[in-house]
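Appendix B. One record, verbatim.
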Amino acid sequence: MRSPHTATERELERWCILLTAALLIAAPVAGLYTDDLSGILPGLWRILTSPSPLTTDYYVMAGLGATFLNAGLCGGFVLLMERLLGTPFKPGLFVAYTLVIAHGFYGLNPLTLAIGTFGLLIGCKILGSSLKDNLGAALFNGCLGPLFGELLFRYLQGDAFDPSNPGLSLLGLLLAMGFSLLSGLAVPAMLPGIKKMHKGYDLYNAGITIGLLSIFLYGLLYRSFGVAHPASLAAPGPLALPDGRSAQAFVNGFYLLVFGLALITGWLQNGHTFRGYGALVRHNGYEANFVDEFGTPLCLINVGIYGLFILAYMNAMAAMPGAIGFTGPTTGVILAALTFVVLGQEPGDVWPIMLGYLLLGGLHWKITGGTSFLCASQPYINSFAFATGLCPIAGRHGWKWGALAGFVCAALCTQIAPLHGGLMLFNGGFCAGITAMILVPILETIESRKA
């Protein structure tokens, strides 16, 4: 074991430790808030033993406190593996950590995360690759958590599956580990080639990689053998709390504390100023590394400002007609939208993506006569969070192209999940990647003719 060897890596690790601690502390506070403190551990057990295809709402399944505890334990797993393997806490590992805790609210738990991680690490061992250098990719493999949960508990039982009495068989465990190893061998080989397809314009490179793989796995395990579609055990919906309180109030309090702390810490470390943040916002976000270019203090300021920006958008969507409200998935994707906050995401290049979603929502509102606002539904909320990975399009080619990217991604988002049956959690990243592959050749052709 060793600690990160640079000041930047120590700072990133320290921030992740604090966020993990905040999640773990929030768990009992959430239990008191919901008058369900005694239900936290039973709720966590249900999360661990339940199949969770996209998008399973852990708030409905297990309660607010158990969900925060699950997300915190997922974050703790990342920190433990980082120390055990001696992996430097570079921005790429920060990306993987953020996605892990985001998915800890809707579809991922320490058990399925461990299966996904160990499968890829075993694959690296077989191929002779460095384990410590591939921890980030191994954690990305955890986004197949819904598949591993299905194989562990439901796939072999079919109609006999009883969610109140889950059973774990040796064959189910072997199937889960076997397919984790399969993806562990395939994903590292596919990642470099996939990036060439979208030319770096989609930050969620792993989304396309694992998305394509999951289409094959769903077709093989379900469609080919006539196995029933993996239905969610907890449909997304607002969490009913006593005395008229809402999950939205608690989640807002948590994120205001987290983003406020990041903003204040960055401001203090930056000499009590925001100097330099304007240059960060003006960066085009293409193949960016904000940590190396601007330093950790400005990155923390970006976490704070950009995080509050995303939080404001989610609250605005929650106020719209027909809104789903603050569910487990909604809470998680606020963090997912910050995944690349140190590698290219900032408000200046994300607002055009947001505009594209709102334009589609407005068009839908006009056509349907204003019964509900499309972008306030769960699929579009989740999709927008990952569509932020298209920010290099807006950064390099202007806000109009960014808005078009958001519009196209929003139009595609509900068509992607049926392809993989909800067996992976990078649905939005997969959709963003397809959007980039559609738009980038068109954009480059137009610009080449102008030249």
